[in-house]
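Subject: for your reference before the review

Hello V.,

The reviewers asked for a structural picture of the protein, and I figured it would be easier to keep everything in one thread rather than splitting it across files. Below is the amino acid sequence we used in the manuscript, unchanged from the supplementary table.
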Amino acid sequence: MVAATLPRRTRGIVPFDPFRHLGQVADLMEMAFAEEMGPVARYILRRMRRMARWGGLGFLLWEAEASGIDPLGFVWLEEGRVVGNISLRRAAYPGGWMIGNVAVHPDWRGRGIGRALVEAALETVEQRGGAWVGLEVREDNLVARRLYERLGFEPVGTTVELARPAGLPWPKEELPPPALPLRRAKRRESGALYHLAQEGLGRLHREVLEVRPAAYQAGWEAWLSAWLEGRREDWWVVTEGERVVGAVGLLSRRPARYHRIEVLCRVGRQEDLGPSLIRAGVARLSRRRPWATVTVLPGPRRTLEPIFAEFGFRRLRCLVQMRRIIGHRLEVNR
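And here is what came back from the structure prediction:
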C-alpha cells in the first residue's frame, strides 16, 4: 500500500499536501524542467509559488481550482525535504488517469525514487477503478522512457512543442496577405473544428492528448466566455463547399502574457494549406502585444515545424505520449 496511512513521515513516500509541500514542489519543478519550460509552464510555476506564499489562503485557492478535477499526488521526503514528486489526476476521457510532473532532485536520482512514485500512482489508480493511465515523456529522456516501458507503458504517439520568445519582432514585411478565403468560424462549425483537431491521430493518442470539444468552440458566445475569463480566443476557417478543410486558432491569455497558435488541416492538405494558414495566423498575431507564442504539433502536424521555424519558432521539446492498461503486471520483461 502507498503511504496514505503515514502522513507524518519525514522519509519516503507521502501524499502531496499543498499546505506543506507546494513551495518545495515548485522549486523542484523548476530545477528538473528549467530548460524545457515554456511560458505556460512558467505561469503555472508562478501561481504555485504565489499560493505557497499566501499560506492558508493559497491552500483554499488550490482547493477551489482543483474542484471537480480530483487531483492527487505524492512526494518523496528525505528528512522532511521534498526530493521527488509526481502528480495524478483524472483524464478527460472515461476511465483514464494522467500522470504528470515526475521529478526527482538531481542529487537523489538513480535510487529508485522515480520508480517508487510511479508505482504509487499506478496503485492509486487501480484502487480507484481506473482503466488506463497516460503520461508524456521527453523523446530524448531515454532513462525515463525505459523505466515507463518496464512498468508496462507503451508509446501511442508524439508531439512537438514550439515556442517563440517574447519581444521578438514579427517579420511584417514578409507577411503579404495570405491567398486564402479565410473567415471567422461560426458556432455551428465548432464540431467540425473538433473533428479536424483529431485528424491523423489514433484513438489512444487522442485520449492521452485529451483532445476536448471545449477547446474548439466558435461563435460570439465562446468569444465572450473566453473574454470574461481573461482570454481572447478566435478561430478562422477555410471551407470547400460546406466542408471545413483548414482552420487557424489564436489564443491570448492576459494574466499569463502569452499567445498560442493552432493550425488544423484535413489529412493530405497540410502541404498546400498549412503554410498559408500559419502565415495568416502570424499576420494576425503581429497586431497583438509581443508576448511569447507557443504552438503544439501532434502526430502528422509535425511536418509544419519548418514553416513555423521561418517565423522565429524554435523547438522546445518533443514528447512521447505513453499509455498503460491497468491490470497488467507492474514489471514487464524487456
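For the response letter, the relevant points are probably these. The longest strand covers residues 314-325. The CA atoms of residues 153 and 324 lie 4 Å apart.

Happy to draft the paragraph if you're swamped.

O.
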